[in-house]
Design a protein that fits this description.
By secondary structure, the protein is mostly helical. Helices cover 78% and strands 0% of the residues.
Length: 147
């Protein structure tokens, strides 16, 4: 059997461990501007594609939409490499499936919009829905709530 650690050493080790955990959490902290920026870039990108589909002669809509979507992807990759913004789903399989299946709601709403209003409506509803969902889930992750 090993000897118990003296109280002073145990306190020092506990303090060091807590500092390491705190530093790790601070390094992975989602910046306050990241959730709205990601959500708005996603929504604006699909909005630009919808406008281009409705007005095919206006190439600025296509370029603007693609620039926003590329900026969304770049922001996601850079942020996840720098500070761990992209979260890996945790929990059991059923819990992960339930949390991630919420993305089907904007997809279903976009499908309904397509039937009644056409493909530009699909792109608009899809972009707004998933942009809002991205914003909400990242804001929850920033606060430490389960996404």
């Amino acid at each position: 059997m090993t000897e118990p650690m003296p109280p002073l050493e145990a306190d020092t080790a506990l303090t060091a461990a807590r500092s390491a955990v705190s530093a790790a959490r601070a390094a992975r902290r989602v910046p306050v501007w990241h959730p709205p920026a990601a959500g708005l870039l996603f929504a604006a990108g699909f909005g630009g594609l919808a406008l281009f589909d409705a007005h095919p002669d206006a190439w600025a809509y296509l370029v603007g939409g693609l620039v926003c979507l590329i900026a969304f992807l770049v922001l996601s990759v850079v942020s996840s490499r720098a500070g761990g913004v992209a979260l890996w789903p945790t929990g059991d399989t059923r819990g992960r499936a339930l949390r991630q299946s919420v993305a089907l709601i904007p997809l279903a709403a976009a499908g309904v919009a397509t039937v009644f209003l056409g493909f530009p409506a699909f792109l608009t509803v899809f972009g707004l829905g998933l942009g809002a969902l991205t914003w909400i889930q990242m804001a929850q992750a920033r606060k430490g709530l389960p996404a």
